[in-house]
Amino acid sequence: MPQIRIFLLLFFGLNCYDSSAVSPSKCNEDKKIDKLVKKALLNFRESNFEKSLVISRNALNAATAIKDYCLISRSYNIIAANFNELSDIDKAIFFYKKALYYADKTDNDSLKCNLYNNLGNMYCFEKKQFDVGIRYYKKSVAYSLKINDLKEVYFTNVNIAWAYFDIKNYRQGYLFLKYVNSTKKKYSDGSTEVIVDMLNGIYASSQNDDKAANAHFLSAIESGKRCQEKTDLSNAYLEYSKFLNKINKHKEAYDALVNHYNLLEELYNVRKLKKASLAGVSLELDEYKRQIDKVEGEKVEQSQSLRKSKIIVILFVLISLILLILIITLIKNIRFKKKHNLELLEAKEIAEEASLLKTQFISTISHELRTPLYGVVGITNMLLEEHKEISRSQHLSSLKFSARYLLSLVNDILQINKIEENKIVLENLTFNISDEITVIKNSLSFLSQKNNNRISIDIDPEIPEYLIGDKLRLAQILMNLVSNALKFTKDGQVEIIVNLSKVEGKLYYLDFLIKDNGVGIAVVDQSKIFEKFVQVGRKDEDYQGTGLGLSIVKRLLGLFGSTITLDSDLGKGTSFSFTIAFEHDLAKTKSIIDEIEVDLTSSEIYKILVVEDNLINQLVTKKIIEKNNYTCKVVDDGYEALKILENEEFDLILMDINMPLINGFETTKRIRLLGIETPIVALTAFDKDEITDEAISSGMNDIIIKPFEPVKLFKIINFLINEKNAV
Ligand code: ADP
After folding, report:
1. Residue 544 Cα to ligand 1 middle (Å)
2. Residue 385 located in a structural domain
3. Where is the Histidine kinase domain (predicted)?
4. Burial class (CB within 10 angstroms; exposed 0-12, middle 13-18, buried 19+) of 67
5. Of ligand 1's atoms, which has the minimum distance to the CA of residue 536?
6. N or C: which end of the chain has fewer CB within 10 A?
7. What is the CATH number of the domain that holds 3?
8. Is the full-model pTM beyond 0.85?
9. Is 684 helix (H, G, I), strand (E, B) or coil?
C-alpha cells in the first residue's frame, strides 16, 4: 500500500523544502519570487495543492524570465511535490528531474541534496526500483556531507535503511540504521522517532530477538499515538502485526492489523476528501502543466530563435565576406585583364615591329652580302677562265668554294625567312621528272666524285612524261637531300627512287625516296636535325653546310602539303621519303610550254648600257656581257645614264637599284619621261619579290637577281629585245 508511505516521504520532502527555504540561499534570488516560492510551499503543506500549483507556476514564469536557475529549480520542486501528493508519480518524477537539471546549473548543494532524496523516495517507494532509488539517496548523502548538513544525512539514512529492509537486505539496512540510532537524539523529531523505533523492531525481528523487537514496536506505537500524523502509527501497527504473526501470537497480530486498517481507513478518507476537492482541479493541473511546458517551450524557442538569428547573422557575415572577396577578385581580374590586354597589345606590336625589323634586316643584310659576293664569284670565274694556268690552284678553288658557300647561306636564310613570312606561293610549271632529277644528279657530280659515291636513279615508268607543279621547289628539296646523302656517305651509294603511289583524277602522287648507305643519324638526333642551324657531328673546319638544308626541306614540303619521313641507322645509312601530288594534264602542259618557248637564239650584236656604282660589279657584268659578244658601256650613276641616253641609243639597259645620288627606280622613271622605250632590266642583289611592284611601276621590264647565271641574263635580254622589235 504505497499511499501509506507517501506521508512519510512527503515529510522528508517537506523537510527538504524547509531546509532550502530556511537556509540562506547561495542563489542571487529575487526577493519577490523567493516570497512566491515560500507561499507555494506553505499552501502545499496546508494541502492547498491547487493554490500551491498556481503560485509555483507564477514563480516559475518569473524565475524563467530572469533566468534564475535556483528559483526555477525550487519552483519545479514544489510542482513535483504537488503531483507526488496527487499520486501522479510520473509527472512528479518528470518535474523533480527538471528541478535537478536546473539545480545542477547552480552551486546550491543543499537543493541538490533535497532533490536526490526526493527522487530516491519516488523510485524506492513508488516505482519499487530500489537500486535506482538507493543510488539517488546515496548521491543525496554525498551532497549533505559536502555541505556538512548532518541532519539531512540522518533523514536520508532513515530512508535508505527502510528501503533495504523493504527488500529484506537487513545486513545492509542495519549499517544505516546503526548510524541513525547513534545520531537519533540529536536530529530526531516526533515522526522519525516512530519510524526509527519501527525499523529497529523490524531488524530485531529479523535477528529473532523477539523481546527487543516487541519493545521497539511498542515504543513506536506509543510515540505514534502521541503524534498528530497517523501514517507512521499505521505503519508501526502493520509491522508489529507481521512480527506478532511470526511469533505465533495470532490473536495480538489480528488486533494490531485491525488497528492498522482502522487508521488507514481514517487516513484514506482524509486523502479521499483531499482528492475529491482536487478532482476538478486535476484537469486544470494538466493545463498548468501545459502552460509550464509552454514557458519551457518558449524558452527553448527563444534560445533556438536566438541561435537561428545568430546563425543567420554569421551566414550573412560569411556571405558578405565571400561576396566581397568575389568582387575584389573580379575587380582585380578585370584590372589584370586590362593590363594584360594592354601588355599583350604592346607585346603584339613589339612582335610585329620585331618581325618587320627582322625581315628588313635580313633583306638588307642579304643585299649587302650578295653584292660583294657577286663580285667575288664573278672575279673568281673570270680568273679561272682567263688564267687557265692557275685554274688548278688550291687557293683559287677554296676561294670559289667559300664564296659559293656564303652565297648559299645568304640564299638559304632568305629562303627560310620567306617561307616563314608566308611569302612563297608555289608556281605551276611543266616538267619531266626524269630530266629534273638527271640535272640534279649532274650538278652534284662534283660532290659525288669527292666522296667517291655513286648516284643511281630509279624512276617508275608509270609516271607520265609531263607533270605540272613547282619544279623549282621540288629541285630545291631534292638538291638538299641528295647533297646531304653525298656529303655524309663515303665510297657508297646514293639512290634516288621515285614511284607512282596512286592517281586521283588528274593528281599523280609520287613517292620520293633518297637513300644512302653512309654514316646514318643517331636516334637522339633524328628529331633535332629538322630545326634551324642544327648540325650533328660537324667539324669546325668543315664548310659543307649551313644547318638550314633540312629545315628548308621540311618547310618547302609543308607548302606542298607533305611531310618528310626519316629512317636511319647509325653506321648503316639514311633514307628520307615524302610524297607529293603533281598534276598531269596534257592540254594544260601544252599551253604552258607554248607560253614559255620563244626563240631566244640570236646572232645579233646588241648594245647594252650598264648602270652600276660598284666598280667590281661593273667589271664582272661587263666581262659577262662582252664574253657573249655584245657591246657594253658602263656608267657610275643614274645622272650619267640620263646624260648618255640623250645622245646614244642602246638595245637594253641593265640598271642597279641601290645607287647613291639617284636610285635605279628614279632613274628609270626619268628615262621613261624622256620618252625612251629601251627595255630596262633591274640588276640587283635585292630579293625579287621585294622590288617587283616598284620596279614595274617605275617602268622597268624585268628583274635579274645578282649573282645570276649568265645564260639566264641572255635569255631575258634576247626575249625583251625581240619583244620590243616585234612591236
Ligand atoms: P647541313 O647544312 O649541315 O647539311 P642540314 O639541315 O641539311 O644541314 O642537315 C642537318 C644535319 O643532319 C647534318 O649536319 C647531318 O648531321 C644530318 N644529316 C642530314 N642528312 C644526312 C644524311 N643523309 N646522312 C647522315 N646525316 C645527315
Report:
1. 10
2. no
3. 364-584
4. exposed
5. 16
6. C
7. 1.25.40.10
8. no
9. strand
Q: Do 588 and 637 lie in a common domain?
A: no
Note whether 635 and 641 are within 8 A (CB).
yes
Using a 6 Å cutoff on CB, does residue 463 contact ligand 1? Answer: no
The closest alpha carbon to 143, from 106, 180, 97, belongs to: 106
Positive or negative, the CA dihedral 425, 428, 433, 439 is negative
Instruction: Give the number of domains in the chain.
Output: 4
pLDDT of residue 289: 59
Best residue for ligand 1 mutational test, from 448, 481, 483, 484 (most atoms within 8 Å of Cβ): 484
Indicate if the alpha-carbon torsion angle 351, 353, 359, 363 is positive or negative: negative
Regarding the beta carbon of 516 and ligand 1, being less than 6 Å apart is answered: yes
Is residue 249 within 8 Å of 257, Cβ to Cβ? Answer: no
Cβ atoms 23, 110 nearer than 8 A: yes
DSSP, res 25 = P
Grid coordinates of 632: 657594253
Atom of ligand 1 nearest to the CA of 546: 2
Cβ-contact 194, 236 below 8 angstroms: yes
CATH number at residue 699: 3.40.50.2300
451 lines ligand 1 (CB under 6 A): no
Distance, in Å, from the CA atom of 159 to the CA atom of 144, rounded to the nearest integer, reads: 14
* Residue 110 and residue 202 in one domain: no
Q: What are the grid coordinates assigned to 427, written together?
A: 608556281
- Of all protein residues, whose CA lies closest to atom 19 belonging to ligand 1? 484
| Count of residues making up the chain | 727
Measured in angstroms, how far is the CA atom of residue 486 from the centroid of ligand 1?
Answer: 10
Q: Can you give the residue range of the structural domain that contains 208?
A: 188-268
Q: Is the CB of 484 under 6 A from ligand 1?
A: yes
Q: How far is the CA of 529 from the centre of ligand 1 (A)?
A: 7
Report the b/e string of 328-354 with b at 16+ CB within 10 A: eeeeeeeeeeeeeeeeeeeeeeeeeee
pLDDT above 80: residue 709? no
pLDDT, the chain, mean? 81
Is the same domain home to 87 and 230? no
Closest CA to 222 of 258, 262, 194: 194
- Boundary-marking domain end, from 124, 149, 174: 174
Tell how far the Cα of 456 is from the centroid of ligand 1, in angstroms.
Answer: 20
589 lines ligand 1 (CB under 6 A): no
Pocket test for ligand 1, best of 412, 529, 542, 568 (most atoms within 8 A of CB): 529
Report how far ligand 1's centroid is from the alpha carbon of 399 (Å).
23
- 450-503 pLDDT per residue, tens: 889 999 999 999 998 889 998 888 988 998 899 899 989 999 999 999 999 999
Residue 516 Cα: closest atom of ligand 1: 23
Q: From the CB of residue 22, how many other CB atoms can be counted at a distance below 10 Å?
A: 9
- Cell numbers of 570, please? 647509325
Residue with cell 530563435: 305
Task: Classify residue 310 by burial, with Cβ atoms within 10 Å: 0-12, 13-18, 19+.
Answer: exposed
| Ligand 1 centroid, distance to 276 Cα (angstroms) | 122
